[in-house]
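User: Can you predict the 3D structure for this chain?
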Amino acid sequence: MTEEPQAPGRNDVNGEAHDIPINQRISRPRKWKQVIVRLALAGIIFVSGLVSGYFIWGHSQSNQTASLEMNALMNTVNPKDGFKIQAIYGDVGPRLIAAGAIDLAIFTQLYQQAGQPLSAQEMDVLTKGSSEQIAITRENAHFLLNYFWALGLTNKNAILNEGPIHQASGGQIDQFASTGGWTIGEKPVTELFSSAEIIPLTTEQQARVEEVAKAVYRPCCDNPTHFPDCNHGMAMLGLLELMATQNASTDEMFQAAKYANAYWFPQQTFEQAIYFNTVQKTDYAEVGAKQVVGMQYSSGSGFKQVHQWLEENGYLENAPGGGNNCGV
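Assistant: Here is the predicted structure, written as structure tokens:
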């Protein structure tokens, strides 16, 4: 009698056909092949974990390095220890209060409400005067902005009486941000404007102020300090006048303007610093002050071109803190 062939995967045990378990049907070479594949996959997963972990760590390190570099750059723009201006406070503060330019109660309340109460030293500057050399810092930049704004607005000067701001006023001098925006005086701004000889200038000193004022711009508009139609322009005028009366040179005045702008416009100046580093391969501290504050880089339109170039070339960064506006 002919035996029927056994179906694949079946075995005759005691004359009966039984299924062979699948794991017994796999040959030894195939088993080893699966083991090798599994080990290889495990190795790939392990290595992938290491590599991804490395890249995450590397990305974190890269971010930390970039942050340190940006902070270092910001320190050249706004030095932590401040920038010393070639002038002392003198008795300007008490004179401004006496002239009605500053209402001390409103002035101090303004800073308290902003969470930046005036320091004892700043109160002395306002009420007693000071023989200390002026240093603009991150902490007092806002105080000095308003302090010099009051001075530029109130001190009698031909730039205000005969210059572009007078010519553009149409008889309404309070229509500008630098005039109508001054709301913390004891008198109406129309009475304060160029009303008191807080710091009289000689003819030679006036000539220096006008020379520098015509060449110092600010990135909020296209007007130089010679046309002080916003608070930054009026404050810069006050700063230049004070320096001139204390016989600072024009170079010293330009240098002070460079750093006053830097503290009053930290974001814009930070971008300028990136631009100078990238395009001119020059640190901000080494760039000529007259070049920095000139129309090409520090006017509204000039800064716009700097900003646009940085944006188009992937260099745009936000300054580590800081900001500005054209109000009190």
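The two ends are 115 Å apart (CA to CA). Residues 1-27, 39-59 have pLDDT under 50 and may be disordered.
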